[in-house]
Amino acid sequence: MGSELIIIPIIFGAIFGVFYLYFSTRNKERLALIEKGADASIFVKGRTQTAPIWKVLILNLALLLMGIGIGIFLATALYNNTNLGEEVYPATIFLTAGASLFIGFNMTKNLDKE
User: 10 Å Cβ neighbour count for 100?
Assistant: First the structure.
């Protein structure tokens, strides 16, 4: 019982530590560049050509949910028409969900080009 209570703070502490190190290191790096007289435009370089994050999230979430739905549909069809057993459900769902995320990745690249 005690080990379960210890694991959760350790996980949250590790996540906090990673984010803290990332942001504090980035801040120190930016301060050092500013002290040396670097232009502040280098901090936003490359962000002007990308699609908004909400478009990417909605696109990938929609494709993931459609892929899961198609996976359930195909798994039900395979289960009822073959003798593969119930092991066909997770395999088909993960296969179609992964394919839909791959399609979403390619569509996101096309969004960035526009």
Answer: 21
String of DSSP letters for the chain = -HHHHHHHHHHHHHHHHHHHHHHHHHHHHHHHHHHTT--GGGGGTT-TTSPPHHHHHHHHHHHHHHHHHHHHHHHHHHHHHSS--TTHHHHHHHHHHHHHHHHHHHHHHHHHH-
Residues 6+ apart with CB under 8 A from 97: 64, 67, 68, 71
Locate 66 and state its tokens: 């459609």
71-109 pLDDT per residue, tens: 999 999 999 999 888 899 999 999 999 999 999 999 888
* Sequence letter at residue 48: T
- In the chain, the amino acid numbered 16 is F
Using alpha carbons, select from 54, 72, 64 the residue that is nearest to residue 100.
64
What is the token pair recorded at 58? 């909605």
